[in-house]
Amino acid sequence: QAKQQHRGSSEYFSPAMGTDARERFKLLKGLRAGFEENRLFVVYQPQVDLLSGKPIGAEALLRWRTEDGKFVPPDQFIPLAEKSGLIISIGEFVLRTACHQLKHMIELGYADFRMCVNVSLAQFRHPDFMTVVNDAMRDIGVAGRNLELEITESMAMEDTELVMHILANIKKLGITVAIDDFGTGFSSLSHLRQLDVDRLKIDRAFVREAQTSTAGSTIAQMVINLGRGLGLTVIAEGIETEEQRSLLLDLGCHEGQGYLFARPMPADQLENWMSQTKAGAE
Ligand code: C2E
Ligand code: MG
Ligand code: MG
Ligand code: MG
Fold it and tell me: Keyword S-adenosyl-L-methionine on this protein (predicted)?
């Protein structure tokens, strides 16, 4: 099945393509090489309780450092990895790396640590997906209750029957699910109600606008009310200021992540951040 996915990459060889396509192909070649030569790695951005400031867990975010030391943003290379099918193996790498880090955090005594991993549509729909997740958990020795998968709003709406089926299997493992970038897609509310998810993640565009415009804060309030009405937890991403933190708390959102608390950081720094922040909160 994985082979079939990789076949899609041949489309990049089309001679009729312009510079953009050639650029993309070069980037994809570099990404493949980078992946094989271990230049892809995972950083972790802490998530906190907005009221107490206590750490809840972290989101695993992929990074690619090219041979000449430059960083290519995930927003540029993830879509390429998705189109080419490379995301299947890269996604498994992220999941397993994050599970190892999760295991480490639990061994350090953070028994309730929640490790959140972004999952692409191609991964999610792949027939081997549940096996990949199951094997990672078993091999590495982590429990589903410490693991959260983030799917985007558009993914959740894609093919509701299939999505519901996959979600049911994920839930059987005790894994929680969050809908990422919530508010940017066009969710059908009746579909959303049918989906067995645990958390809505408010897109950072609304966090920013909540502070600067009435429309922005109205949308943030609506998303928070919607989530709470459906019995879901709501988390806000991209919190950069103290004002945003207190505004979100006022609106009824109790979890968040953003530069105000911590930037995405390498694994070794996460430990330090956790121990310092835990101490600071007590
Ligand atoms: P996302 O999942 O919505 O991740 C949150 C993004 O917001 C991250 O960008 C993070 O660094 C950034 N961010 C967090 N706090 C702040 C803040 O206070 N201010 C601002 N301006 N930005 C903040 P990043 O790491 O560049 O990732 C971008 C996107 O790439 C992610 O958005 C996700 O969609 C995708 N991505 C990253 N890693 C993975 C992965 O392993 N697998 C998949 N499928 N997608 C990934
Ligand atoms: Mg995410
Ligand atoms: Mg997001
Ligand atoms: Mg995003």
Answer: no
Which residues are in the CB-under-5-Å shell of ion ligand 2? Answer: 118, 150, 180
The residue to mutate among 101, 118, 155, 255, having the most atoms of ligand 1 within 8 angstroms of its beta carbon, is 118
Residues 208, 238: contact at Cβ < 8 Å?
yes
Assess whether the C-beta atom of 74 lies below 6 angstroms from ligand 1.
Answer: yes
Residue with tokens 């009221």: 51
DSSP code per residue over 134-160: HHHHHHHT--GGGEEEEEEHHHHHH-H
Which candidate, 135, 24, 154, 39, places its Cα nearest to that of 81? 24
Ligand nearest to the CA of 262: 1
Q: Cβ neighbours of residue 87 under 8 Å, at least 6 residues apart?
A: 78, 81, 120, 122, 123
117-131, 140-154, 209-223: range with lowest mean pLDDT: 209-223
Q: CB neighbours (10 Å) of residue 265?
A: 17
21 CA to centre of ligand 1 in angstroms:
24
Q: How far apart are CA 116 and CA 96, in angstroms?
A: 12
pLDDT per residue over 23-63, tens digit each? 889 999 999 999 999 999 999 999 999 999 999 999 999 99
Q: How far is the CA of 74 from the centre of ligand 4 (A)?
A: 10
Query: Tokens representing 162?
Result: 């299939």
The rounded distance, in Å, linking the Cα atoms of 212 and 154 is: 26
Integer angstrom CA distances of residue 217 from 43, 181, 213 = 30, 16, 6
> pTM to 2 decimals?
0.92
Give the pairing type, strands 255-257 and 40-49: antiparallel
Q: Write out pLDDT tens, residues 118-141.
A: 999 999 999 999 999 999 999 999
Q: ipTM value of the model?
A: 0.98
